[in-house]
Specification:
Keywords: Cytoplasm, Translation regulation. By secondary structure, the protein is α+β, with helices and mostly antiparallel strands. The protein folds into two domains: 95 residues, Ribosome hibernation promotion factor-like (Double Stranded RNA Binding Domain, 2-Layer Sandwich); 77 residues, SHC Adaptor Protein, CATH 3.30.505. Helices cover 29% and strands 38% of the residues. Helix 1 packs parallel to helix 2. The protein is globular.
Amino acid sequence: MRYQITGKQIDIGEALQTHVKTELSGVLEKYSGRPTDAQVTFSKSAHEHVCEASVHLSTGLTATAKAKATEIYAAFDGAAEKLDKQLRRYKRRLKNHHQERQQPVAVSGGASYILAAETEDSEPETLQPIIVAEMETKIPALSVGEAVMQMELAGAPVLVFKHEKDGGVNVVYRREDGNVGWIDPATGT
């Protein structure tokens, strides 16, 4: 497993890095068999330390957590506790679905764009949006249940995925009423 432990304008010492690796390894061994990499970033916000942790599993799941505390170790422990809870829920849901994924999730590449926000004062010269940034993104091949689970665990409002059965691009999203919506475009004519 690869660890990337960084600090934004904070020096991260060897003792903290060792603590992060030890604690995160303990959490991951309980719930997942094959973690691929973990990213932990520490920063400071006023008088509080902020810890953002992200763990990628070979099943395609990305679990993320963020915690704040006055002590840097307490901030990490809070984030690790949230990751523990997410992974516990993920494992419980996998058992409830009575299926074990034998192969890692297939992932295909795609382009992701950030578009400039329109200002209310000015009229755009063209109907083409202004692209601020372009990035590579990964689109996993999942079942609908796995897609909903991954969206909820990541805390994302929407998830684009390839449906495992027909290979079509689908979308699950959180509705305003709290339910989950699923968009399954018709294939063919």
